[in-house]
Design goal:
single chain, Multidrug-efflux Transporter Regulator, Chain: A, Domain 2, two-stranded antiparallel ribbon, 44% helix, 11% strand
Length: 140
């Protein structure tokens, strides 16, 4: 069974894009060239997927040059989300010594409980090295 292929008009309906836009994306190399030329040109599933991805990224505000990078293997952008109104986050407050507190949002930092304990131990050790009088009584 062969993959489906589409004439330009049908591809444009499926992607909800104007023919001029599709031709432009092909011209600048964002979308693979079709099989055949002019009115006989046929577009496949790959071109449809490329168009849908481009449409998604342009709706998200990405520039066409960045989209070109992404389509050619650059890592996708990881958008840091600012906490929204009403959002809840859990933070650990670890008293390391008098006047010294470590505050960590383990979920946002991507730390497991074991990693969190290792972080606390490392910070305590570093604190004891720079100021032995500020050492803690192992506040864990």
């Amino acid at each position: 069974m062969t993959d489906p292929s589409y004439p330009l008009a049908e591809l444009c309906l499926l992607a909800d894009l104007a023919p001029r836009t599709v031709r432009y994306y092909v011209q600048i190399g964002l979308v693979d060239r079709p099989e055949g030329e002019t009115r006989a040109a046929r577009y496949g599933v790959r071109q449809l997927e490329q168009l849908l991805q481009i449409k998604k990224w342009t709706a998200a505000g990405l520039a066409l040059e960045r989209i070109r990078e992404l389509l050619h293997g650059a890592p996708p952008p990881v958008a840091a989300r600012a906490p929204g109104v009403g959002s809840v986050s859990v933070r650990s407050h670890v008293l390391l010594a008098e006047g010294v507190e470590l505050v960590v949002d383990a979920a946002r930092a991507g730390l497991s409980p074991e990693q969190m304990r290792a972080l606390v131990r490392a910070v305590q050790s570093a604190l004891e090295q720079i100021n032995p009088t500020k050492g803690s009584d192992h506040a864990q």
